[in-house]
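My convention is simple: the sequence line spells out the residues, with the fold written below as integer tokens. I include a record here:
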Amino acid sequence: MERIDDMNVRPFSCAYLPALRVNETRIELGYRSADEGQRARTASEFGALMLSMAHVGSHGGFSGDQFHPRDSNVAVRDAVAGSGEFAWSFVHSNVGSELVIALENLAHALHFRDRDLDGVKIWTALSAQSQGLMPRAMKRYQPVPFEYLYEVVSPTVVVDVEFSDRQDVQRMQVCRDAFDAWYAVAAAGGFADEEFRPSGETAIFIENELQITSIGMQVVYARAQVGESGFNVLTNVLTHLHCSVARLELVEIA
């Protein structure tokens, strides 16, 4: 097992290459397992995470502090899963380096689990790539357009959202998809940072599933080893939902 003291650098090669198009990012995993079943499982599991990444990005999660989440978008362009090579391409607009950092984190967590990752290649024009170093914090856009409190002091985290006006509960189910995608990436280590590293330190579990009523939403996470980076991404998602689905009065993450 890797020692935490040795974790300033990724434990696999990470090469950056010029993007073919400025609005595209491509990740390619070199995967050395000779077990066809293992390769198929990895392609399926990582592919599902790539879809969750795109869903988080389509709700402004990766806008960072540079772009308004309302104007930020990510979508999967294509996927290739061949013998010993897996690749996914994204098209995006108004995203920060958070997208690249999250992709690296997911690859890092994959390496920690099965040790069959030879290296990662990333074609991107996004600035401030980590160059294989452990990630900096992911940031949220400010100012947030609602009253906001972030005060996580225990592994049990309650996300409480109040709507400005009463909402149709069925219409608000789109929010569930956004929360589910964020949770999938968080549980897989995508939002790791200096507080919780991607080598087995990140974890999060659902204690009480997301409840959506006409006046708000609430979800409770247990044993949450996800730092402020992850909740900054979630806050950007909520800012996007505020602008595109329903106005929010209050968001508390505590």
The beta strands are 13-17, 24-31, 73-82, 85-93, 117-123, 147-150, 157-163, 203-212, 216-225, 248-253. The chain is about 30% helix and 30% strand. The longest strand covers residues 73-82.
